[in-house]
Records
---
Amino acid sequence: MHEKNRQQPVFSDQGTTVSKLNELIARARVHQSAEQTVMAALPEDLAPGTRFVSCQEGELVLSTDTASKATRLRFRQHEIMEQLREHELFRFVWKLRVKVSPPRFRARTKAVKAPLTKENARLLKEEAGHTKDKALREVLEKLASHVRE
């Protein structure tokens, strides 16, 4: 017969929970300091929108918001890795991988309507003169009257 799995409380031993939390906080601090080091090594024009993801087994992984920026990072990877190797944490970095992760939401700019030019208004009036349909002629003339001086 199979032995039933016993469900154990999540916080059965608070000592291990606290130690795991402290371990996570310590890892987050190391990651934050590594990210600051990487960001300082990046060229100024490529730093905005670029994030440090990880560095494991000599592979440095960065994430950026646009493909063009990723290409420029790959083009300058030797220069970046050379600067990073001066720090103990990145001494054995030999490969740079760049991922493209576009932002989820972008603020949409409102479409700006271009004002009707005098030339376009003249063409609308001319077309209205050649139109046999009375309703269409009135609409075209009304559109032509919206010209801004």
Note: The chain has two domains: 16-100, 109-149.
---
Amino acid sequence: MIGRIAGVIVYKGDDHVLIDVRGVGYVVYCTDRVLASLGRAGEAAALFTDMLVREDLLQLFGFPSLVEKEWFRLLLSVQGVGAKASLAILSAVGADGVSRAIALGDWNTIKAAKGIGPKTAQRVVNELRDKAPAVMAMGAGIEAGAASAAKVDASDADHVIDPVPSPAATAVQMSASAQAEALSALGNLGYAPGEAAGAVAQAAGEAPEADTAGLIRAALKLLAPKG
């Protein structure tokens, strides 16, 4: 099993990238978001990967973080959702968007992905609702690992300059970390994983730049008894 690719970009296609790792070229299928975030030919790239193996097919799929990779694997577990559909969902809303949509039961967001109908979108939300909190809780440690993995050692390829995370990527990592910490705090306060995930997801959607403390306060307000 190949879990990570780090090397030099040879070329980028419409749905994949060819990465040279010490003379061996790996074709890695990615979402539009991931392809757009990668550099040009000759520049360094590092992706977490998941391998799909069938009798007549062997494909690698690449992701910028282990959280997104985990969502890809979970989406594949939904009846009627294959690799193409999973990538379409992640491409449309990203890992954070999938997490928030499932936690909130918002299947319309999932339906926005290309080729995803309402029945499939509802099935995704219903089948993965109980698993969303666990993936959200992966946040802090996982995102730190993703940032570290984005650096390519000189031993991986000659004359490679370590890619510098973009401000947008850094913001996403901070948001995921804050959500994970807020979710953990609510769990420690006795809230059920499902309701805590929904509240954190809604709070993060209303205030994307909120830190952990801000998310906790906002989530507690949402969870407070009404009336």
Note: The chain has ten helices and five strands.
